[in-house]
Amino acid sequence: MNLSELDQDRLAGKLGKAMQFAMETIVTAAHIDQVDSLIDISFAHIDACFYSGRAHLDFVNFMLEHDATLAVPSWTNNGLVALNDLSVRDPLASREMDEARQLMQAYVKLGCNPVWTCAPYQLPDRPQLGAHIVGSESNAVSFYNSVIGARSNKYGDYLDVCAAITGRVPFSKLHRDEARAAELVFDVSKLSREILESDLFYHLLGHVIGRRCGHRVPAIVGLAPSCNEDDLKAISAAGSSSGSVPLFHAVGITPEAETLEVASQGNRVEQIIELDVADLRQARTELGADSGRPLAGIALGTPHFSFFEFERLVALLDGRAIHPGLVCYLTTSRHVHQQAQQRGWIESLSQSGIRIITDTCTYFSPAINGLQGKIMTNSAKWAYYAPGMLPVEAVIGSLAECVESAVSGKVMLDRWGES
Amino acid sequence: MSSVVLRIEAQVLIPGWASGTALVLDDTLSFWGGFDPVQGEIVDVHHPQYGLRVGGSVLFIPESRGSAGTPGGIAETLRNGSGPSAFVLGERDVNIGVGALVANRLYALEIPVLTVTLDEMAQIRIDDRIEVDRQGLISVSR
Fold first, then answer.
1. For residue A276, with 0-12 CB atoms within 10 Å meaning exposed, 13-18 middle and 19 or more buried, which class applies?
2. Mean pLDDT to the nearest integer, A105-116
3. Which candidate in B28, B31, B32, B101 is best for mutational testing of the A interface (most A CBs within 10 A)?
4. What would the pLDDT profile of A300-310 be if each residue is shown by its tens digit?
5. Contact at 8 Å (CB) between A231 and A263?
6. What's the rounded Cα separation, in Å, for the pair B52 and B39?
7. Domains parsed from chain A with CATH numbers
8. Which site among A21, A376, B54, B72 is 20 to 30 Å from B3 CA-CA?
9. What is the architecture, at CATH level 2, of domain B4-141?
């Protein structure tokens, strides 16, 4: 392996035991990936702050005890609990909840920027086109690669932290030009404008792409000019749930896909898949068929709600109250929460009966009480994961459908997804 | 009396000595979500080996499933002493490798992670007696 002099000093322990451990982990990852060189990174999004057992705490405590510092700006993903809201905890798992909080605090001590969000790309000062970075949470990896054109593989727990400490990663896969070429095409141009301009469409499209693209890099052609970052977030999240899509290209929209030829780097694409309404209906059914049970609640904000989504929600709800008897959760980042607060939206939505939570998410957290039975969501990712983690069944709808369902107390779906 | 019936020279991802009885996974497994690291038990209800405990085995994993939470699940089961004594993979899986490396360093263990070809793995039978050395030599007795 070609290690710089500094890398060799790091590996030999000349910069302390924490750096040595981190460097050994990076070099081992390069050995496993069968690459012989490392590159510098400029940013990391850390997932190891999400508690999954005592080993997580032992790892970061080792780093702290040996005076580890971070080589690059490092932002935190969601935690298991809400650090600023003690009521968000599981009374049955008190020790785990305490350790989850300790873990989050340890990463602040290590020097992370405590943004606690799975949508860090919604915050200012995000990485630029071509930047080599470390992403960990699957939707963020996909968004960074696809929508911003920054370069990241999907880094697992510990490796993300070791990369942030050393500022180095193996020069492999999506860090290299050739791994970023589109290999197959999803053509959506036959779908109606009404569908292409619906927020739900992008969740269903992401689900279909995740199911069908395997390990290939997909390009999408035929999207409407209305396609915005919330829509691209939906593709990122849904594709990374039903499958593994760390990079996609939206031709004419995303930065490495001015044309299909550019996106495919001049190579011939292997396959073109034309999507029709039946594909979307099937995706909707896969994400939760209507069992006829009464609606119990609404879950919004997976990945975290953006400022623009707040604006749409406030307009759609128009001051109406959530139906009594329903629980309605919305998750967002502290940053966007503050922006929404300045507009008076947090107060008005809370008065309508929506519980707004930061730092964590509702689909996995045992700390969120009250989500059981039939839950409606605007997120394909939530619909994909929650039924395996919580005692819930999911039904997916557009944001407008979720709002009308929340107000009326029963599932209200538009026609195109149903008939 | 069992005797050595097979020797395989594996690729070493993480070196270590180990012995145990062979356990071969019939399907991919997520070590975050599909696995309980306290009991070392497969808890994914869709998995054909649901309910099986992997503690002390040499665990053969033909196909891996990429998940950012995998290293945490691996490190946690090794910390608890409920995990396998060695991993033998069909693919070079960074997440399993990093999980084992971190647990080895934090808890002074020496759990090896190796790779073999799928043809080699197909020769392994459940409950074969397995020994692994630091150079990656796998000795199979039955």
1. exposed
2. 98
3. B101
4. 999 999 999 99
5. no
6. 10
7. 5-177 (3.30.499.10), 181-285 (no CATH), 289-408 (3.30.499.10)
8. B54
9. 3-Layer(bba) Sandwich (3.50)
